Amino acid sequence: MAAQRGQRGGPGRKSAESAAPVGSGAPAASEVTTPMPAVDEQRARSIPEAAVARLAVYLRVLSAMAEQGATTVSSEELSSSAGVNSAKLRKDLSYIGSYGTRGVGYEVDVLVGQIERTLGLTHNHQVAVVGIGNLGHALANYGGFPGRGFPVAALFDVDEDLIGVPVGGLAVNHIDEIPLVCAQRGISIGVIATPPAAAQAVCDRLVAGGVESVLNFAPVVLQVPEHVEVRKVDLAVELQILSFHVARRADDDEETEPAANGQAKGVDRVVIGR
Amino acid sequence: MAAQRGQRGGPGRKSAESAAPVGSGAPAASEVTTPMPAVDEQRARSIPEAAVARLAVYLRVLSAMAEQGATTVSSEELSSSAGVNSAKLRKDLSYIGSYGTRGVGYEVDVLVGQIERTLGLTHNHQVAVVGIGNLGHALANYGGFPGRGFPVAALFDVDEDLIGVPVGGLAVNHIDEIPLVCAQRGISIGVIATPPAAAQAVCDRLVAGGVESVLNFAPVVLQVPEHVEVRKVDLAVELQILSFHVARRADDDEETEPAANGQAKGVDRVVIGR
DNA sequence: ACGATTTTGTGCATGTGTTCACAAGTGGAT
DNA sequence: ATCCACTTGTGAACACATGCACAAAATCGT
Ligand SMILES: NC(=O)c1ccc[n+]([C@@H]2O[C@H](COP(=O)([O-])OP(=O)(O)OC[C@H]3O[C@@H](n4cnc5c(N)ncnc54)[C@H](O)[C@@H]3O)[C@@H](O)[C@H]2O)c1
Ligand SMILES: NC(=O)c1ccc[n+]([C@@H]2O[C@H](COP(=O)([O-])OP(=O)(O)OC[C@H]3O[C@@H](n4cnc5c(N)ncnc54)[C@H](O)[C@@H]3O)[C@@H](O)[C@H]2O)c1
Q1: Where is the composition biased (Low complexity) (chains A, B) (predicted)?
Q2: Predicted pLDDT at B251
C-alpha cells in the first residue's frame, strides 16, 4: 500500500481521472514492489485517501472554532459540525496520532497543528494558474487560497492581449514560459483552466517545469508521468451525478406511488429549518 | 427508513459533505436503496456511487469518439481513454445492462444512449446559480452546461446593484424570490456560489423552492433534509489533498535517499516558512 | 480514595468498491 | 463445418472504508 510503485509496465505515462488518484494504479505484482506481504515497518505513512479529504474539512471546521475562541472540542461536536459520524472522525484522527484526552476531548490548537503537519501545510505551496479566462480570473482573484497557504505565484495564457496584464496583482506570462517560470518560482501546484483542447499540452509544460501536482478544470483525462498527481474538478460530471439521483428519486416515487402525482410543484412541505 | 438508530443529529436534517474523491460516498444512498432486510428479491437498481461518476466520464469520451466518426469501441480502447482499467470499465457498464457484442466491442451510439438514460440525461435539468460574483459569473457564462442538458434558468444575488442586470443573457433576481422563481421555472439543481456565511440560508431557500439537488462551492458543510442531495466542490480541500501528496513524496524521497539530491532544478523542496 | 461519568482509541463485523481470471459468445478464416 | 483469435460479462477474491461497541484513560464529585 505504502509503496505503490509500478503500474502497468507500459509507457511512462499514467492517465489520471480525478477522483481516484490511487485508484487507477494497478498493483501489478510484477515489479519489485514490497517484498513483504505485511508492511510491518513505517505503516503510519499510509492514511486512507478518503480520510485525507476529510482531514482537510476537519481542519477548516477547527480553524473556525478556534476563531470563535474554543479551546477544546469533543469528537461528537467536531464530527457533527463536519458532517460525519463520530466514530469515523476518531478513526480518521487516529491515523495521525493520539492527540486527544479521554474523558475530555481534543485541544483545538493541537489538532489544527497536527492536521496541518500531516497535510504538509506547514509551509506554503506556490500555485500557478494557466488559462486566465472566466474561471482563471475567478481563481486568480480568489482570496481564499493565499490565506490558506496557497499563494498564486504565476499566471499563464496564450492570448497575446492578456500577456503582461495584471490579474489579481500578478502579471500574466505566456505559456511558452511555463517551464522556466515554474522552475524559477518554485511552483508546486499547477491549476489548469484552459479549454479542453489545450489542457494536455499545458499539463506537459507544467510537468516540464517540475510541477508534480495538478488540479484540472478542463473536462479531459490528462496523461501524466508516474510521479505526477492529478486531481480533476469536473462540473459537468458533478451535475450529471446529481441528475442521476434526480432520476433515481423519480423512479422510486413512480414505483411506490404509481398514481396521483400531478407533477405539482411539490413545494408544500416547506421545512425551512429553524 | 431503515430505523437507522444512533444517527444522531437534528430531526429531518442530514449534513452533507460529499465530494468527488475516491471514497466519496453519499451516505443517503444506502438508506434509500434497500430499506428492507437482505431479501434476495433485491432489484439490481443500485449502481455504485463511484461507478456513476465514471459513467459520466465514459459518456464524455464516447461523445468525443462519436464526433470523430467511431461507430464501435472495445473496452480496452474506451477504458484507456477514460483512464481506468478495462475490467472496471466493463463492470461499470454491466451495471446498466449488456450492450456489448463479444469479440467485437460496444456500439458507440448505443452506449451513449444507455448511459444518458441511466444518468437521467434524456431531458433537461434547469439550473439556478446563486451568488453572481467571480465564480457565479463564470458559471453563468459557461457554455458547457446548456450544451449538456443543464440550461441555467435562474440567477440570484443579494446585491441590489446586480438585481435585474443580465448575466449570460439572464436577469439576476433577488434571493428572496428563490422559492417562488425556482418553483415557477422548475429548477431541479441549485448551484451555490455565495460567500460561506450565506450558503446555509441560501440552501434553505432553494429547498423551500423544491430544489432537491445542490452543488455547493462554498466551503461549508450544508445541513439539508433527508431527501436533498448535496455535492460539494471545495477547491481548498483539493489543494490540500495535493499538498498532502507533495509532502508524502518529499518524505519518501528523504527516506530512501537520505543524501544527495541535487539533480533537479531545485524545483522541489520549497522551504519558505510560514 | 473511589466510584460515577465522560470520551477517546480501536478490534471486529459489515459493507462497498476494485481487480483478477476465465467461461461463454462472436465473427472471420480455413 | 470447424477452428481460432478476440472481447464481453461476471463470479470470486481481494482491498479498502465504515460503523458499532466497548475497554481504557481521564476528570469530577463526594
Ligand atoms: N467557466 C466555468 O464555469 C467552467 C465550468 C466548468 C468547466 N470549465 C472548464 O474550465 C476551463 C476554462 O473555462 P473558462 O470558462 O474560463 O473558459 P474561457 O474561454 O473563458 O477561458 C479560457 C482561457 O484559456 C486561454 N487559453 C486558450 N488556449 C490556451 C492555451 N493553449 N494555453 C493557455 N491558455 C489558453 C484563453 O485565452 C482563455 O483566456 C474550460 O476547460 C472549461 O471547460 C469552466
Ligand atoms: N472565486 C474562486 O475562485 C473560488 C474558489 C474556491 C471557492 N470559492 C467559493 O465560492 C464562493 C463564491 O466565490 P466568489 O469568488 O465568486 O465570491 P464573490 O465575493 O466574488 O461573490 C460572491 C457573490 O455572492 C453574493 N452574495 C453575498 N451574500 C449573498 C447572499 N446572502 N445571497 C446571495 N448572494 C450573496 C455577493 O453579492 C457576490 O455577488 C465563495 O464561497 C468562495 O469561498 C471561490
Answers
A1: 17-31
A2: 76
**Is any Cβ of chain A less than 8 angstroms from the Cβ of B22?**
yes
pLDDT at A255: 66
Please give the grid coordinates belonging to residue A241: 451525478
Is the CB of residue A170 less than 8 Å away from at least one CB of chain B? no
Q: What is the pTM of this model?
A: 0.86
Question: What is the structure's pLDDT at A147?
Answer: 86
Within B4-74, residue ranges assigned H as helices are 27-33, 49-67
Amino acid, single-letter form, for residue A110 = V
| Residues B155 and B108 placed together within one structural domain of the fold | no
Distance from CA of A173 to the nearest CA of B (A): 19
| Counted domains in chain A | 2
Rounded Cα gap, residues A164 and A167, in angstroms: 9
**Strand C reaches within 7 A of the B49 CB:** yes
Angle between helix B178-185 and B196-208 (nearest 10):
50
Cell triple for B187: 429548477
How far is the C-alpha of B173 from the C-alpha of A114, rounded, in Å? 44
**Angle A75-82/A49-67 helices, nearest 10 degrees?**
100
- Min CA distance, A242 vs chain B (Å)? 6
From the number of C-beta atoms within 10 Å of its C-beta (0-12, 13-18, 19+), residue A43 rates as exposed
Q: What mean pLDDT comes out for the span B196-222?
A: 97
Of A14-23, A141-150, A154-163, B113-122, least confident by mean pLDDT is A14-23
Q: B29: nearest CA in chain A?
A: A245
Searching chain A, which residue's CA lies closest to the CA of residue B181?
A: A265
SS3 B69: coil
Kindly tell me the sign of the dihedral angle through the C-alpha atoms of A250, A253, A254, A255.
positive
Q: Are residues B161 and B225 in the same domain?
A: yes
DSSP B48: P
Q: Tell me the per-residue pLDDT of A151-207, one tens digit each, with 9 for 90 and over.
A: 999 999 999 999 999 999 999 999 999 999 999 999 999 999 999 999 999 999 999
Same domain, A182 and A200: yes
- Could you tell me the CATH number of the domain that includes residue B105? 1.10.10.10
Residue A256's contacts (CB-CB under 8 Å, 6 or more residues apart) are none
